[in-house]
Write the structure tokens for this entry.
Amino acid sequence: MRTNQLEGACDTCYTHVVAGSGRLIGHPGRWRVLCLTCTPLPPSRGLHRGWFEQTLASLDLETTGVDPHTDRILSYALLDTDGERAGLVAAGVPIPAASQAVHGISEQSLIGAPPPRIAVAMITDWIQSLIDRRIGLVVFNAAYDLTMVRAEAARHGVRQPAWDRLMVVDPHVIDWGLERGGLGPRRLADVASYYGVLLDQAHDATADARAARDIAIEMGARHHEAGACTLVELTLRQHLWHSERAADWNAYAARVGRELDDPTGWPLVAAPAPAVTATA
Ligand SMILES: [Zn+2]
């Protein structure tokens, strides 16, 4: 949840809220100010048992942009149950200024880093080892990061892991299943702040991967609906929540002419159809 930039009356109790002292809730064009007392909090941890008690892995990438099919991996963090690995990738493509402003990775900083073929093979081997060890992988907005890993593996001729057997825990999708978008924009930093999870260096892959895993555990422990099940059952619920979120978005997107989401595109988005080339 975001801090209110403008003063206003609390939407719930009508107390005057000074700029910067309350929270914003809602959506662009329909923002509402709340005082701190009226700001929604997540439920306390419950007594239920579930997947969140297992050790989980976590992955995060920093990349050149927002298209998982065409953009490239610049850095990765792989958090296993017994340690962390992080590194840079010499992507060999220009880094747009806009993405450099987000994560601070420049072409200069990639000198000496391994080429994508080596780095991507290491990432896919690691993902396969999680599948073999039946360890769940936390990825915040998996449809982006995992689709990019798959596209990079295809691009560089690297063997794909058995994607359909990977157990993914996606706090972005679970959050939608629990809140239905009612708390406004829910980027990693918003959700971390809501659950009281420390995120001191947003857009550093290791910091983001740690926060995503901590958020997943809090969600599971605090929400019976999301936590009291096995990883296999959670996977089914996330497929359903993703398709419901896509339907909700698509109803809006169709009205205003925005691009539609694929209801089946979690945790991997279907590759775009190859461009049709005219033949003589
Ligand atoms: Zn209030």
About this structure: Helices lie at 97-103, 116-133, 142-155, 171-179, 188-194, 205-222, 224-227, 231-256. Residues 246 and 262 are 7 Å apart (CA to CA).
